[in-house]
Description:
Number of domains: 1
Organism: Phyllobacterium bourgognense
Number of helices: 8
Family: Belongs to the phosphoglycerate mutase family. BPG-dependent PGAM subfamily.
Shape: globular
Oligomer: single chain
InterPro entries: His_Pase_superF_clade-1 (IPR013078), His_PPase_superfam (IPR029033), PG/BPGM_mutase_AS (IPR001345), Phosphogly_mut1 (IPR005952)
Function: Catalyzes the interconversion of 2-phosphoglycerate and 3-phosphoglycerate.
Catalytic activity: (2R)-2-phosphoglycerate = (2R)-3-phosphoglycerate
Amino acid sequence: MSGTLVLVRHGQSEWNLKNLFTGWRDPALTELGHEEAKDAGQRLKAMGLHFDIAFTSVLSRAEATLDHILEEVGQTGLETIRHQALNERDYGDLSGLNKDDARVKWGEEQVHVWRRSYDVPPPGGESLRDTGARVWPYYMHDMQPHVLRGENVLVVAHGNSLRSLVMALDGLTGEEIVAQEIATGVPIIYKLNADSTVASKEVLEG
């Protein structure tokens, strides 16, 4: 048996609360978001998990969530690698817009296609497939080797960068993954086999 891969989406951000397209913009966590991050750390601590390395994006909502988790599990000095490959999907021209206002401007159907299709990007932005095209190589080259060496790896990122990972790990199609919700502050724990396939998956819901 190889190591453990733990995925956590950042806690609620201020723009999540305001129903805005966030993407690569950098709003802070809300009070609830800070609590969600602490809760995630407490659940992981209760499992007795000890991490060997952590990965996160370069966006502050993910970094703050990671900081809370590491404080809760007693590993504040853990080696952490930050990389924009793990950033949220870039929503391009939609970034910063209220989702309801975007529907008024472009129409309900078009906005739904941008949000929930696999391979249609919004103007100036990325599709989920585009997001996966930067997440998957980074996972294969930089994160997966740690797990296959038997290490426990913590990844704190975003809804769509984590969707890309879940899609690959679970062997889902584009249609299947866009229907999957990744909840804020809820750890997803994968155990991998030596050949990198998934041995088990557990979602630590409260």
